[in-house]
Amino acid sequence: MLDDAEGGGAPEVLDGIPTSTPSIHHHYTDIIQTWPHPSNDSVATPRNPPLIPSVPEPSPTRRLPASLLPRGNSSAADPVYEEDDISSLGHAELDQHRELREMLAALHRPADDHTLHRGPLRWRYTTYMGEQHPAANKVVVTFKPADITALTDAQRQTFLKLVGVRYNPVSGLVKMSCESFPSQAQNKRYLASTIRALIAESQDPNADSFADLPLDTRHVKVKPRPRFPERWLVTEERRRELDEKVKKGVMEEAERVEGNRVVSGILAIEAARQAEVEKLEEPVLPRATAPLERGKVGRREVGQLWGSNRW
Length: 311
Prior knowledge:
By secondary structure, the chain is an alpha+beta fold.
């Protein structure tokens, strides 16, 4: 209902909403007229404006970028999303790696002795391709004590005793890890400081060298793995020797049996079986029993016992 508001009368009212100026009325009318229609059947009117604007249907011919299509098929439609792909942050990081790889290709140079030489410490990091994970801050360092040239043999033994269970005598590596700090840089710095402190303690002449204590390696459990003997391997020559040996044994056994130099087990089995068959063929006579007298018969006559066996 739209009333005139001139001369101090009632304010303009549009669908229960008071308007103080004509501009608001025209603005509201323009919004209603330009509101998208949800369908052809329903028509938006000032009394019944649509609550949700219509969303255009996706085009059935929409294609993926060439970088995301399967190899060998550049015109395939959208694949079914199986929820097994990495996140969008992970794809962004992969794209960054692809861009940097092309830029770093210009700095490529042949490897020499200086570039191949690396320090004794080997660092390992873990990334989850843009996703937040508690294990992403963990840093692991491995090194061989023999590569630390600043230590003598006696100091190296002291260093191994200070390291303790982190030393593996089978592989000869020391493995240490840290995830106590919220960033990888802090964990790496802590590990580097710990290794420097261990080396300084091993080189300190005033500190205890633990020379009277043996190196404890009880924490390493080596499971014995028996190896298959090479002399047991069946080669072509070994196979021919085994076949000839088997044939020779069969021929010798046949000669002994034919010459009656050994009792044949087959003949003994056949003789015993024939005796059992003849025994089963003999007739079995039925047991003759005297007929019982008529009338009352006691328990003794029918073969019952007194005591536990009662009627």
